[in-house]
Give the backbone structure.
Amino acid sequence: MSRRKRQKRRTPPGSPPGTLVADPTAPKPVITVIAYGSDGCSEQAIRDVADVQAYLARWPVTWINVDGLGDVQTIARLADILGLHRLAVEDTINTHQRAKVEHYPNHLFMVAHMATYNDHLDTEQLSLYLGRNFVVTFQGGQPGDPFDPVRERIRRAVGHVRQSGADHLAYCLIDAVIDGYFPVLETTGERLEVLEDEILGCPTSGTSARVHEIKRNLMTLRRAIWPLREAMNSLVRDPSPLVNDETRLYLRDCYDHTVRVIDFIETYRELGSDLMDLYLSSVSQRMTEVMKVLTIIATIFIPLTFISSIYGMNFQTDRSPWNMPELTWYFGYPFALGLMAMIALAMLYYFGRKGWLRSPGEPPRSPGPPDQDRNVSDRIDNQGE
């Protein structure tokens, strides 16, 4: 299995607060704007961040999505236009932040992590800014996001998003991020079921690696979603002039979804640990069965080797009648072979009576009623007739 990509802090130690250092390998920003009101909406990709001011002045709500963090100057210009705090912008570019919510004088800053699963688990930091009439989202540049249903609701005026403010849009985006965890967890649950059947059937050398991969993915999801619960609790509990009471009720539903995701993760983590223990137990059981067969074979051959070693000694029967007279018998060789065969069969019969030849999961055979008991029961039946 390939190792996980480690997040590196780009800002040098000791740098002044608010220092912006972008990842040189990050893609260049692609900015799209969706501005809307109750009477319509406008969607466009822009190249000059100065065009954002026209949308802010015309439309009640403006959603600015920045996909890619490879250009510090573009991000800094956009932050200056919207009045975003420099410390929050630094946390946006350094994509190793925990999920959190921070309140600033003219906007609210939130960090969350989006999760997708396509052959492997991918997590991406989402930085969200909520102002009075705008929402800004920064993504790392990975293809795809969970916001397509929100875009369709805005385009088709479905629900209350076009009649609500920017805080309701922020709720819709946060809800889409949290709901994106459920398909990942469903895929994880299906993989755990397949691994359970494989371990109970015929585990291979790669089974433990796949179980460990799932446990590692669950740990990654836990680190992403666990602090998000506290962030959602802060949004629900702490009053903010940017979030009205009705939106706070919707955010409480997001908090409940976060708790459900955490419960699923903890359950799957315990199941993954149980599957690893089951795998080790299954491997140990198979090794025990192999050692049992080898021990039985070696035990049977011990007396046979003893007999053959005695008859293989050099004796002279003309010197003494005690020097193994069997060596001069006509049937001495068949006698030795028959003796060894009888001993081997007797030992197999003894092992079978003791139950040592059964598999660990095979139930013991129940002995049938003796003949005397059958005769007694027959006599009772005859007397009753």
Q: What stands out?
A: The chain has two domains: 30-282, 289-361. The first strand starts at residue 30 and ends at 37. Residues 29 and 104 are 25 Å apart (CA to CA).
